[in-house]
Design brief:
CATH architecture of the largest domain: 3-Layer(aba) Sandwich
CATH topology of the largest domain: Kinesin
Bound molecules: adenosine-5'-triphosphate
Structural class: alpha+beta
CATH superfamily of the largest domain: Kinesin motor domain
CATH class of the largest domain: Alpha Beta
Distance between the termini: 54 Å
Number of strands: 19
Radius of gyration: 54 Å
Length: 981
């Protein structure tokens, strides 16, 4: 059941035209919640019957049957804030304003068909244009504009659904309708749509969404009351009147002690409550003899939802869970309360216009009192005024949460208007109310703070990381030391062994040496003995002369022995040399081993030095500890820097405001200077002079602001003042000046004055009309002709002047100018003047005879949309007057327009790209078709086909209906239509 609303706000909710800046992703999100301190048992489950309670307080709602235990509040601070739905989050605070145009009703169609609508919507630009007359219009931008065909579903989704979603998330929200009586406030908000669900208004749709989103453990309750003449009456229990408003002195929260609060469980039940409320509102109105709802109706929806806070890894998350799953876990059970206000304000029309008298006048004053004080609060809030007069009326006291209030209310306002030009003033006033409200930014409860805890955690993490790194490196160093020591030991061992081997080897070599020396000695002794023996033998030879042969043999033997001895000596000498070389090599080897040993010792020395790195580690640890201390100090410094920064930001904001004010003053002064400089160009522009508009028009285009509008009206006031001081007579005399420059300036002033109703009669009385006609007759100057035609067009708006213009030959003169000029602006002015004259049926014959109709139609050759729109307006005015004359039985016969080819012109222009021209062409065809005597012309010129097309394709429902009516009411048309279409 608790499926939750799928957000369509990104596509269908108001888009932001202006608004607050983006919030950073870190920061603190503060909500106000009611703790579970008060008992959760509620009699709300008992039934849906109307129950009465001690008090209903907004934000701290006392629920039915619930004890008034003080509810504890707490702030919740998630460590990170999401940016989801950023548009909505960022711009939550600004009041969103939409405008809805009501379709024409029967009265509008009957009374207004001669007039253009005063409202033009440009939904694609979210703009609304208010047309004062044919020449002047103002354009305003809103968050959304709804045309007369906008569905109830779309209006709900754009205006109210984002607010409802916000309320379901625990914020307060308000949806309010403001507008003149009969413009559709109740239709938009309170329509029940019993037979057709698509007709349901915002109240029913909001409850439908809310009920679909809450779970069984949640609670939805409503109060419904009206504020009539500063008195609050319960619409669910009408006997309860004069309900007081209580304000909590500490929190400023509002409560209505004694008001009924009803628990709602399904949409049918809510529809019944709404019906009861509407019936009671209607009964109260009837009793008070009022036709329309003159009270302010307020529906309050209280929502109480169970939520729980889950703490995981230091991150706080909010989850909507069934209450039963909360026990036994680390979840913290909480109740989240929010409130939705839907306010159907009473009609905003002016007292003088509504014609109220006696009791009704009193009533209107009270209604106006509360609406006026609402307007004052809106003004004060829009201007950021330090004092908001919330206490001036009950309405503003009740709505204190909705506009700039202390809670984070999200507010949507829908301005309802009608299309009729008769209610121009009321429509303008409603539109301006919306324009002021759109500037209001409610205080948003998202509070931004630096996340110190996060920083702390980050630093701790870094310290942990560094400590681990130090430990790792220490371990590495120990490993290295162990390895080096091991290698050193191995080196020492191998050195000792090498030394041992060397010693063994040198002992062995010494022994061998000794042995060889002994051997050599023995051999030498042997040799000596041998030599002694030889000597003895020679002695014997000498002595033994006899045995010479034998002696010779002995000699031979001796030489052999000597050779053997020499060989043996050489061999031993060689062996001794080898042993000495071997001994030298061993010495060299011993030396290189000693060198290696030295290198090892050096290495050992180095590694012992490396071990000194350990000390560095210790120092690092000390530094780390110092860092801890520094970190603590940094935190406190950060704290003080932050408060300093806040102070500086405040100062900066104040200086910015001052700077802005100075800039605005400078800009106003600059505008005033430029205004004076371009004064005459502006007048020209207002009268359609293209040359002037190339200079001034560009500026106008770039500056379309309220201040310019104010400057323009100030300009008119300046001209009126000049006229007052110089005297109209003198200005009119300047029209006959011989200097054409003087004439140009004078005619511009007169044309400007003629744009205001109250000057028109005076200008004619003082001979201004004659002077203008004289200029038309005699001047050749294009500018003079153009501006003069504009002035006459302005004068021709007034019925009293129209006869005079005709009797003085004005139509002939205008026709002549039309035939001579190709200047589009002049043609537009002339067409406008003739179109105004077409609206006076008494002048029709004269207008035709003076060539006015022919001239009007011929101006179509210009191909200009503006000129075509004026021609179409004139023909429509003419045809309308004729059809009225026929209806009243005052006129007979074929239309005077037929001979001049008006029907052909209309058919040829029925697909004109200009909306205004097309509407007038369609209206003119419908009015001409009403005359049976025009039927022949319609048949011969293809007009019937055009009429059938209009009845199906016209963009205006009222015109489609009119065409259908014409086709039905003429038997000839009926037959043709049946045969051909
Ligand atoms: N958008 C619309 N579409 C169709 N009909 C509408 C629309 N808006 C209003 N109406 C009709 O116009 C009439 C007046 O509307 P509604 O009663 O809602 O006006 P209101 O502004 O509430 O007037 P009041 O201030 O007197 O209460 C009703 O018959 C209503 O059905």
């Amino acid at each position: 059941m608790a499926s939750g609303l799928r957000s369509s706000s990104s596509s269908s909710s108001f888009t932001t035209a202006a608004g607050g800046g983006a919030l950073s992703s870190s920061g603190r999100f503060e909500r106000q919640l009611h703790g579970n301190g008060s008992s959760s048992s509620s009699s709300s489950s008992s039934s849906s019957a109307v129950s009465t309670q001690g008090g209903v307080s907004f934000g701290q709602t006392h629920l039915p049957g619930r004890s008034k235990a003080p509810s504890s509040r707490r702030s919740v601070t998630p460590n990170s804030r999401t940016n989801s739905g950023s548009d909505y989050e960022e711009d939550r605070g600004r009041v969103r304003v939409a405008v809805r145009l009501r379709p024409k009703n029967a009265e509008d169609i009957i009374l207004d068909s001669d007039f253009a609508d005063c409202v033009e919507l440009q939904p694609e630009l979210k703009r609304l244009k208010l047309r004062k007359n044919n020449w002047t219009s103002e354009s305003y931008r809103f968050d959304e504009v709804f045309t007369e065909t906008a569905s109830q579903k779309r209006v709900y989704e754009v205006v109210a659904k984002p607010v409802v979603e916000s309320v379901l998330n625990g914020y307060s929200g308000t949806v309010m309708a403001y507008g003149q009586t009969g413009t559709g406030k109740t239709y938009t908000l309170g329509k029940l749509g019993k037979d057709d669900a698509s007709e349901r208004g915002i109240m029913a749709r909001a409850l439908e969404d809310i009920l679909a989103s809450v779970s069984a453990s949640d609670c939805v309750e409503v109060s419904y009351f009206q504020l009539y003449m500063e008195c609050i009456q319960d619409l669910l229990a009408p006997e309860k009147i004069n309900i007081p408003i209580n304000e909590d002195p500490k929190t400023g929260e509002i409560s209505l002690p004694g008001a009924s609060v009803v628990k709602v469980q399904n949409l049918d039940q809510f529809s019944q409550l709404l019906q009861i409320g509407e019936a009671n509102r209607h009964a109260a109105n009837t009793k008070l003899n009022t036709e329309s709802s003159r009270s302010h109706a307020i529906l309050m929806v209280y929502i109480r939802r169970s939520v729980h806070e889950k703490v995981e890894d230091g991150i706080t998350s909010w989850e909507k869970v069934p209450r039963t799953t909360l026990s036994g876990s680390n979840a913290i059970p909480l109740i989240r309360k929010s409130k939705l206000l839907i306010v159907d304000l009473a009609g905003s029309e002016r007292i003088d216009k509504s014609g109220s008298e006696g009791h009704l006048l009193e009533e209107a004053k009270f209604i106006n009192l509360s609406l006026t004080s609402l307007g004052k609060c809106i003004n004060a809030l829009a201007e950021n005024s330090p004092h908001i007069p919330l206490r001036d009326s009950k309405l503003t006291r009740l709505l204190r949460d909705s506009f700039g209030g202390h809670c984070s209310a999200r507010t949507s306002l829908i301005i309802t208007i009608g299309p009729s030009a008769r209610h121009y003033a009321e429509t303008t006033s409603s539109v301006m109310f919306g324009q002021r409200a759109i500037k209001i930014v409610n205080m948003v409860k998202l509070k931004e703070e630096f996340d110190y805890e996060g920083l702390c955690r980050k630093l701790e993490h870094q310290v942990d990381h560094l400590t681990a790194e130090v430990e790792r490196k220490q371990k590495l160093r120990e490993d290295d030391k162990y390895k080096l020591e091991k290698e050193l030991k191995e080196c020492q061992d191998s050195f000792a062994e090498a030394k041992r081997n060397l010693i063994t080897r040198s002992e062995f070599l010494e022994k061998e040496n000794t042995r060889l020396e002994v051997e050599m000695k023995d051999l030498l002794n042997e040799l000596k003995c041998q030599k002694d023996h030889n000597d003895l033998m020679s002695e014997k030879a000498a002595r033994l002369e006899v045995n010479i042969k034998c002696s010779k043999q002995h000699q031979l033997e001796s030489s052999t022995y000597q050779k053997v001895l020499a060989d043996t000596t050489q061999m031993y000498e060689k062996k001794i040399a080898e042993l000495i070389k071997q001994l030298k090599d061993e010495h060299a080897h011993a030396k290189s081993v000693e060198e290696q040993l030295n290198a090892m010792k050096k290495l050992l020395n180095d590694s012992q030095k490396t071990i000194q790195g350990q000390k560095e580690v210790d120092e690092l640890t000390v530094k780390l500890q110092e860092m801890y201390q520094l970190h603590g100090q940094t935190l406190s410094e950060l704290q003080s820097l932050k408060s300093e920064q806040e102070g500086l930001l405040g100062e900066k904001a104040r200086l910015n405001e001052e700077l802005q004010a100075v800039r605005e003053r400078l800009s106003v002064e600059e505008n005033q200077r430029k205004t004076i400089e371009y004064e005459l160009d502006k007048i020209l522009y207002m009268n359609g002079n293209t040359k002037a508009s190339s200079t001034f028009g560009t500026r106008i285009g770039s500056q379309k602001t309220n201040s310019l509008r104010e400057t323009l009206s100030g300009q008119r006031a300046t001209i009126a003042k000049i006229c007052e001081e110089v005297g109209l007579q003198k200005i009119l005399q300047l029209l006959t000046s011989e200097d054409s420059d003087v004439q140009i300036h004078a005619v511009k002033v007169v044309a400007n004055l003629a744009a205001e109703d109250f000057n028109q009669e005076k200008i004619v009385e003082e001979g201004g009309l004659d002077a203008l006609l004289m200029l038309l007759r005699s001047s050749q100057n294009t500018t003079i002709l153009r501006v003069t035609s504009g002035a006459i067009a302005n004068l021709a708006m007034n019925e009293l002047n129209q006869g005079l213009i005709m009797s003085k030959g004005g139509a002939q003169l205008l026709a002549k100018i039309a035939s001579k000029t190709t200047d589009l602006q002049t043609l537009r002015m002339v067409a406008g003047a003739l179109a105004n004259l077409c609206g006076n049926e008494k002048l029709h014959i004269m207008l035709k005879e003076d060539g006015g109709i022919k001239a009007l139609l011929e101006m179509g050759r210009s191909g200009s949309n503006d000129v075509t729109a004026q021609i179409a307006r004139g023909i429509a005015n003419f045809a309308k007057c004729e059809s009225r004359g026929i209806n009243l039985g005052q006129r007979k016969g074929r239309s005077l327009l037929m001979d001049d080819g008006a029907l052909g012109w209309l058919i040829a222009n029925s697909n004109n790209s200009s909306t205004s021209a097309q509407r007038h062409v369609e209206l003119a065809l419908c009015h001409l078709a009403q005359n049976e005597d025009n039927v022949e012309d319609f048949i011969s010129s293809g007009g019937v086909k055009e009429l059938v097309r209009i009845s199906v394709e016209s963009s205006r429902e009222d015109i489609r209906n009119l065409a259908k009516k014409m086709l039905r009411s003429s038997p000839t048309f009926r037959t043709i239509k049946a045969e051909k279409y």
